[in-house]
Design a protein that fits this description.
By secondary structure, the protein is an alpha+beta fold. The chain is built from nine helices and 21 strands. The protein folds into two domains: about 270 residues, Naphthalene 1,2-dioxygenase Alpha Subunit, Chain A, domain 1 (Alpha-Beta Complex), CATH 3.90.380; about 110 residues, Rieske Iron-sulfur Protein (3-layer Sandwich). The two termini are about 35 Å apart. The structure holds FE2/S2 (inorganic) cluster and fe (ii) ion. The site of FE2/S2 (inorganic) cluster has 9 residues, from loops.
Length: about 400
Amino acid sequence: MSNHLLHDLVRRLRANVRDDTPDLTDSVLRVPASSYLDPAQWEREIGEIFLKKPMLVALSCDIPEPGDYMSFSLAGRPILIVRGDDGLARTFFNICRHRAAQVATEFSGNARRFTCPYHSWSYDRQGRLAGVPGRAQFGEIEAEGLTELPAEERAGAIFAVLTPGAELDLDAWLDGMADALAALRLDTLHPYRKTSVLQSPNWKLTADGYLDGYHLPYLHKDSIGGKILSNGHAYDLFGPHVRLSMATRRIEEIDSVAEEDWYLPDYLSLVHFVFPNVSISAAHGGTAMLSRLLPGPSVGESTTIQHQYFRQPLDEEGMRAAEEKRLAYEKVVLEEDYATVFGIGASLEALGEAPILYGRNELGNQHLHRVVQEMTGANRRLKLKPRRG
Ligand code: FES
Ligand SMILES: [Fe+2]
């Protein structure tokens, strides 16, 4: 997306603020509380969405050099994302072809070879089997290497499907989201390697917070929400993905500032929600925070990993600033967002079949729930009740 289109977005936010209305859906949405509690529904979400659809597994800048890698478990699948000597980013099951030990044991790093800690079978950066101690004892080894997953790099991000041999049509999946992500120039970011790892409740409850512009000036009034206006949000839907744009208190300045002098981060704040589980909060041309939601072993649990990115490589002072920023966000997310969503999680059982309400202004949240329900066939089972607002 060019600057020109971002300027259009700023003008759209300004008009919303002037008219005192965010973008709206046609109707209010009621979602039964059981949608967050039902283990069978959660199993369908894992099976139909997390294991079948393309997942954003890393940013290109997380693994810029050959041998750079990341490894973590997503929806019960241990994965290893590594850049090969040929510059290609590949995604594998992080599962040794001998007896299934996890080959990479660190979250991230650089390796010439991946050597399994159990019996030292080793794999090269392209995932090929490179060494087997006592090879003669194994006869003909059929496995050529680590199991590779369909993966592709686009707009500064790496996407993979967690099922070997599955089809990956990234154009169809991303829709216009590729252009929206490209505008963030994610490939020019520099990661701060220390992440925040936070316990979080049900993945959809947690995701709801990242798609929700409505709560910022209220729940976060004394922290990160103070500069955001509540009445101007704009939402763009790209397939299942959402871009949430929020106007800041300074947006009125555009009425008197020449367009060539606009500094966009003064006027808008952007959240790109890459369905189903990645939120990228990034000012155009500024720093970025990526939050990755990893569903836990049961319906009520997930883990969030938050990554901070900067425009410049981090020197010593940059590292100090990065650590300060990481801790500040961790505090806000734990004490404000997650304290609240854990509270919701603890209340849902009491609601039974009574619904949770999503207003016409909660467009991103409505989209998430409609998409999940459509992909899992739950709209028939859960009897979603839209109502004209
Ligand atoms: S399980 Fe990996 S070498 Fe044995
Ligand atoms: Fe929040």
